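#onboarding

Welcome to the new folks! Below is a worked example of what a typical request in this channel looks like: someone posts a single protein sequence, and someone else replies with the predicted structure as tokens. Don't worry about understanding the tokens yet, we'll cover that in week two.

Example request:
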Amino acid sequence: MSALTTQTIVPPSASVPSFHHSESALSTFGLDAAMHRARRCLLSLQNPDGHWRGELEGDTILESEYILLMAFLGRLDDRKVWKAANYIVAQERPEGGAWSNHPDGPVDLNVSVKAYFALKLAGHSADLPHMQRARSAIRELGGAVNANSYTKCYLACLGQFPYENCASVPPEMLFLPKWAYFNIYAMSAWTRTIIVPLSLFYAHKPVRPIAPEQGVAELFLENPHKKLWPHPPTNRVFTWTNVFLVADQVIKWLEQWGPQFVRAKAIEKAKAWMLEHFADSDGVGAIFPPIIYTIISLNCLGYADDSPEMIYALKQLDDLMLEEEETLRVQPCFSPVWDTALSLNALALAGTGGHDQAIAKATRWLLDREVRRPGDWSLLSPGVEPGGWFFEYSNGFYPDIDDTAMVLMGLARSGQAWKPGSPGAPREAFHRAEREGYVLLPAVRRGLNWLLCMQNQDGGWAAFDRDNNHDILTKVPFADHNAMLDPSCPDITARVLEALGQYGIKVGHPQVDRAVAFIEQTQSRKGCWIGRWGVNYIYGTWQVLIGLEAAGYPMGNAVVQKAAAWLMKVQQECGGWGETCLSYDNPALAGTGTVTASQTAWALAGLIAAGEAHSDSVRRGIQHLIETQGPDGNWAEDQFTGTGFPKVFYLKYHMYRLYFPLMALARYKRAVAGNRETAIPTSNYDWPMALAQ
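Example response:
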């Protein structure tokens, strides 16, 4: 692999923007006042050490699984269980009858089965109105037998469903070499961190008896112990789904009749993998599902409650809890690097330059979290120097492309990516050093190199790994969480282009050209792009448009104009934009839904990048943001506009409603003032191809 060479470069003069606008519309709309309020609000939320972190909210599956875990551990008398149950009840769908995986969504079977079971374990009688409504809704959807593999594992460990009817998750998977089509490194990073601890859980098949009145037999239309496939087979005999179902039965036969020493060695290998991934991490993968499975697995492996390993795992879970007087909710993980990078970008775009103490503190905090160790990604990308950033406080095995790109953008826009002469040079020397030339910080150079090295063969970028696109694996029985793979997606690809563009790596560079071709090929006939990590087509389209602009793409191109026309078409009468999570299930709903501040900001940023800053559509959108801003400078937003697993798990980032609108207002002000972002000219660089093609 080639590395980026050290060179002296000049930072962009736009890093510290100055606004000299003359359009009376700005003062008419109160743009400056709105930006001031939002900026002040954002700065007030910064932590003393320089970072930001908003709450990350998911659906009640988090609180339900916590209660199910407490039942497994025999701790249902913990007061936190009662509080978590209170929260679950409060989140019942407004229409009544079970729970959804996002506000205003339909009944979700998995969320509802777990919630119902958790409430029974917490002492809620099946005769209570909310339990009757939920039970009726679950049975109308075919009952708990139609739940996914992960829900069935919880039912099995508490004696409500036979392991024989669950999907096999054999720890022997870890014996498969990395070159094999089916191996744990061919799975997405998040699935890998779930599956390894779950394989230990599955291998031991623990069953914790519960009181008969706490059971959920009433959620099944037939006897759950009747022999069933773990996943319905297809009508055609020879399909990959059916092949894997047969393999599932073979695995179960071998578990009973095969050599037990193989299983024992597999358990040891999975255990070693899990314990190794405790290092430099807030739990395995630093996300909720593997943390839960880790606790169950440690229990199965015989670790005592006071063992260092169990204390560590339980602490990671406890840290995710937000406990109040009557309720308790659980976050799926923390998002400090993401929130800090986005806040840094927002403040830089809004005119808070590198001289500000808040910017300097945020920069130091981010630089301290650069990844400098190999991780899972490096097994399939050997020879690439570690670099980049993760999402959480600590997740050293899993830096991700999205966070790395956002951090690099924030450092560039705030003028913090370049080092003038010596560390800690005073800001007053900035302009002199600018003339003399800046040198990229080593962390920035490593981050750029890592991004370039992580490009997929199709020209796009994914979240964590390269070429993680073995589609056949989506047919495995335990792949029913709809997130088995981590393929290229337009939103992350475009974000990388936006980041590279801040450093002058633009159209004309071979890797950028391949990425642009990927984006052009993935545009829908409507003109929009799907959003993998945000809801949904508005998110994807916004990110593509600003990524193309940053890459120096001709914004008069039909690709861009078609996308801008689509954004204008889905603008709502109030001037804002909104899109429901249901657009993943039904693309006909693309661009439709309750108006939100974050999605309005995305659409505006996309249109401004497309050259529509002076359009009536943008003016109305800006006016909508200004008119809906609260006195504290923030915006209200109840919807989930973040995506975890499409169709399965969605997120509400509580800071999206603040820093994205601030960015949109700042982009508008810059655009109408003719003050566009600039970057180092590409000719100042001699970036090598980071991947051997």
